[in-house]
Design a protein that fits this description.
single chain; alpha/beta; 3-stranded parallel sheet; 2 helices; 3 strands; flat
Length: about 70
């Protein structure tokens, strides 16, 4: 499982094993200030990062930063 979150310390506290930092608390998977195409690219990047995290073997909690 991959936990996409805005506050990674909480994910670490609850024991998530694969953590992908999101954008911001009010808009974790987007940014309403971006154009439609820019927001699509941002969301695509986050989903691709989460899929890569899911496919990566881990033996301990791992935060998948850029």
């Amino acid at each position: 499982m991959v936990h996409v979150c805005t506050v990674t310390p909480i994910s670490l506290t609850v024991g998530a094993n694969r953590i992908v930092p999101a954008v911001a608390i009010p808009h974790p998977l987007g940014n309403p200030k971006l154009s439609e195409q820019e927001e699509f690219s941002l969301r695509k990047k986050l989903v691709e990062k989460a899929l890569k995290a899911l496919a990566t073997p881990v033996s301990e909690q791992t935060v998948f930063e850029d």
